[in-house]
């Protein structure tokens, strides 16, 4: 609408009819009436967007209380982000959500085969030359991106303009100032590509690229392992002695972290693991000073 406002000709007469004819006969030219109606609608939509932003902010605040990593799917429109989300959650997600029963419809909990969990957010698709006014309209989702632990850039590798689309997405990401967030690149729709073997070979050469088909499910196990590796990179190493009466902490460590070693001592469970930073802070009272370094 903001795009149309300065370009208005008489294309909005139906809106005048919808407003019940009240705007007629006020001495305004048709075009001004049209503009006024459009501005009112823009105002209403902006208010609605603000409500959406506030809601998502509340969800995020609630979520940060729980140490489950949040991963956002980003990418060019039609790259297959939503398909990937559905495929992953359809195949692995727990039917009953305990903690996030009221999650926004685009965020889903994913449980991998090894029992680890993360939250996956589907975001709005990017397009080339995204007008700044539109960037503002997408803010609710885009803010979500900036608070993720990891970004998954989904690419339609079968598309003849895949390179330009990657570039366009990178450009929006740099405008959003999220370059510091680790990223995994996913070459999707490999089933549709004319040269799938070549693409797979190329992807195998690069350690930040995973080749998949969100549609057929091909490569999804590799995708999950790659996610695990990336998440591990952003976790911190802890060695903690968890008292026996804090059993729930141990469960959480197993769920959100990567346990390297568990030992039962007379004072409690000695655990060595990679865990999300926020969770490591929760464990501070039980952490041990140790001379051994994290395994590489
Ligand atoms: N052949 C093939 N088609 C796919 C694959 N993944 C997605 N598609 C199709 O691509 C189209 C777009 O998929 P979406 O998941 O809606 O894409 P999106 O990235 O969410 O798009 P936006 O929401 O517009 O950003 C759909 O028709 C999907 O069925 C794939 O791996 N192979
Ligand atoms: Mg989508």
From TrEMBL:
Molecular function GO labels: GTP binding; ribosome binding
Full protein name: Hflx-type G domain-containing protein
GO cellular component, one term: cytoplasm
PROSITE patterns linked: G_HFLX
InterPro entries: G_HFLX_dom (IPR030394), GTP-bd (IPR006073), GTP-bd_M (IPR032305), GTPase_HflX (IPR016496), HflX_C (IPR045498), P-loop_NTPase (IPR027417), Small_GTP-bd (IPR005225)
Pfam families named among the record's database cross-references: GTP-bdg_M (PF16360), HflX_C (PF19275), MMR_HSR1 (PF01926)
Coiled coil: none
Species in which this protein is naturally found: Kalanchoe fedtschenkoi (Lavender scallops)
The Hflx-type G domain, residue ranges: 69-235
């Amino acid at each position: 609408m903001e795009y149309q406002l300065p370009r208005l000709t008489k294309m909005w007469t139906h809106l005048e009819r919808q407003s019940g004819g009240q705007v007629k006969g006020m001495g305004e030219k048709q075009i001004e009436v049209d503009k006024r109606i459009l501005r009112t609608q823009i105002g209403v939509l902006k208010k609605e967007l603000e409500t959406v932003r506030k809601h998502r902010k509340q969800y995020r605040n609630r979520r940060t209380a729980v140490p489950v990593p949040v991963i956002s799917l980003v990418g060019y429109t039609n790259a297959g982000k939503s398909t990937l989300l559905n495929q992953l959650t359809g195949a692995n997600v727990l039917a009953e959500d305990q903690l996030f029963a009221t999650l926004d419809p685009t965020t889903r909990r994913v449980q991998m085969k090894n029992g680890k969990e993360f939250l996956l957010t589907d975001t709005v698709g990017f397009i080339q030359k995204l007008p700044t006014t539109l960037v503002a309209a997408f803010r609710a989702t885009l803010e979500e991106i900036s608070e993720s632990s990891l970004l998954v850039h989904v690419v339609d590798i079968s598309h003849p303009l895949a390179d330009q689309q990657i570039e366009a997405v990178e450009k929006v990401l740099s405008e959003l100032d999220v370059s510091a967030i680790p990223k995994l690149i996913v070459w999707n729709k490999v089933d549709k590509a004319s040269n799938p073997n070549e693409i797979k070979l190329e992807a195998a050469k690069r350690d930040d690229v995973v080749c998949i088909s969100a549609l057929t499910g091909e490569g999804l196990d590799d995708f999950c392992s790659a996610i695990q590796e990336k998440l591990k990179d952003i976790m911190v190493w802890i060695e903690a002695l968890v008292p026996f009466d804090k059993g729930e902490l141990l469960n959480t460590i197993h769920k959100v972290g990567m346990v390297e070693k568990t030992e039962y001592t007379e004072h409690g469970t000695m655990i060595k693991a990679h865990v999300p930073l926020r969770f490591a802070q929760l464990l501070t009272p039980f952490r041990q000073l140790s001379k051994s370094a994290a395994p590489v």
